[in-house]
Amino acid sequence: MNRREFLAAGVTAGAVAGAGPAREGKSNRPKFRMKYAPHFGMFENSPSVKILDDLYHQQVSEGNLIPNMDMAWSEIGYFQIGDNPGRDEPGSGEINDRDVFNRIHEKGYTGVLGMEHGVSGKGKEGEATLFETYRYCDGF
Fold this sequence. Notes:
This protein has helices at 3-17, 55-61, 65-72, 97-106, 123-137, and strands at residues 22-23, 50-54, 76-81, 113-115. The chain is α/β, with parallel strands linked by helices. The chain has a single domain (23-137), classed as Divalent-metal-dependent TIM barrel enzymes (TIM Barrel, Alpha-Beta Barrel). A four-stranded parallel sheet has the order 1-2-3-4. The radius of gyration is 16 Å and the shape is elongated. The chain starts with a helix and ends with a helix.
């Protein structure tokens, strides 16, 4: 069994179980940016293979988070949160995270938002800022 056949078998098994993988496009590979996400190939429009929308990578590579999210919405299965620069918590960089979170909510997403980021502050003060920021971003 080659890699493609192995992946297809795994996707089929996941679909039967009601689960499936999320694929991620990296910012340093322009052909795999979010704006090309619906064209990823053999799993396009798959009910069980979706896009991992890494908001940090997308901001680094092209920005336009909300329009790109809208364009590829039916293919997104999971979000990773991290601000740019630094891949720290929301509110620590240039992304308007409150608007992004609001759009995710408006679109009806009910899945997990992966907190793939660091904390820009130190110690308990940094952790407190992190929680305050998430409360602010969720207060739309």
